[in-house]
Amino acid sequence: MANTSTCQALGFILGPVFQTCFALIGEKGVAWDIIKLQINMYTAPVLLASFLGILNIILILFILREHRVDDLGRQCKSVNVPEENADELQIPEGSIDQVAVVATNIVFFVVLFIFAVYETILTPLTMDMYAWTQEQAVLYNGIILVAFGVEAVLVFMGVKLLSKKIGERAILLGGFVVVWVGFFILLPWGNQFPKIQWEDLHNSSTPNTTFGEIIIDLWNSPREDHSEQPTGCPIEQAWCLYTPVIHLAQFLTAAVLVGIGYPACSVMSYTLYSKVLGPKPQ
After folding, report:
1. Is 165:174 a contact under the CB 8 Å cutoff?
2. Mean pLDDT per 10-residue segment, the chain (282 residues)
3. Which positions, given as ranges, span the membrane (predicted)?
4. 67 in helix, strand or coil?
């Protein structure tokens, strides 16, 4: 299972690498007017994912085969050939702990939920907190996720050896503790606040103008240069006015800790689930 999780981590590495490369295309990109297709930094990853999905379907249909093995790992009979000696195939019987199966599935859901939330909030979080443009957010976060994936591969390989000494449950618990510490560090501290998008226009307002009128005027005012989008925390988000900024050191430290805890929890949840089901065909 550790090897399977390592291959999964390779996907985490290559995905951000492609994302970082596609960021160089820019938002405008290239237009293919014949089929009304716009290829830019947002559509290129989707097209690549669609191509890989079709490739996986072809591999599953024509290349991959299922096999049954006994308790010692010896191949019994492929399920893709006609059943001739079905009586010779002996599948060990035994009760499966249903509570453990449900518990491991819940653990696996929590682990994936943690990573999905972290990966999803990266771009909007950095754009609001550090006043990054969309191109900068995609590029920098892609680099961070590449480092995250490399770290995950190292953790996967280390966990494979460490589990033989201290056990899977201890590593799973330790991984959750490390992830919790990472998200705790990610909490906003201090008295420095993020840059507001319309801060310069707000400061130049006249005293007789109410705050609501300022917001309405800013929202309805046309902008001549549409290529340069405003950066910073949008003023319509009320939390921007009272939530301290997450310092870059906090952000990177949390990324390192989550990069350690997530792969440890992931591979251990896979391993425990496989052990709970036992040697039966899963």
Report:
1. no
2. 66 74 79 82 86 92 75 57 47 70 87 84 87 84 84 84 85 92 89 76 48 51 52 84 89 91 86 78 54
3. 39-64, 99-118, 138-159, 171-190, 251-273
4. strand
